[in-house]
Design a protein that fits this description.
With 138 residues, this protein is mainly α. The chain has helices at residues 2-7, 15-32, 34-45, 52-75, 84-100, 102-109, 117-134.
């Protein structure tokens, strides 16, 4: 399920539209499957004893494929040059934060902003953060 959102990242669509969609899909996963996200995070924090073959195999291959797509967008001048692997890690970190640290997010946002709308607020912010930063320069 978690890998499906990355598999959907495609080089056919406009890169900024595609990345916006990916960010939204990741936030939907954080909203809909917070327990699974925390389970995954706990596995990673323990050194990934059960899933290391998946991380070093299928996940690495998939991320390398998508990094190639992102590098193609950069070469074509469709997005700013950056490290595609760290871009993917950053999207993972910021979107999954809303699942893994949901209690903290809701507490800090408070009762007026910590409800279901927090995911839409997060989506708008992350889209601005990533997409504005990836717009081609000049």
């Amino acid at each position: 399920t978690w890998l499906a959102t990355l598999r959907e990242l495609d080089d056919i669509v406009d890169p900024l539209t595609e990345l916006r969609s990916y960010i939204r899909r990741k936030l939907e996963m954080a909203r809909d499957f917070p327990r699974e996200s925390r389970l995954f995070a706990n596995e990673i924090l323990q050194g990934a004893p059960r899933i290391m073959p998946l991380l070093a195999g299928e996940l690495k291959t998939l991320v390398d494929e998508k990094a190639t797509v992102i590098k193609g967008w950069m070469r074509a001048g469709k997005i700013a040059k950056t490290d595609p692997w760290h871009l993917i890690f950053s999207i993972w970190a910021t979107t999954q934060h809303y699942a893994d640290f949901d209690v903290q997010v809701r507490a800090v946002l408070g009762p007026n902003r910590g409800g279901d709308g927090r995911f839409e607020d997060a989506a708008r912010f992350l889209e601005q953060l990533f997409l504005d930063g990836l717009k081609p320069k000049g």
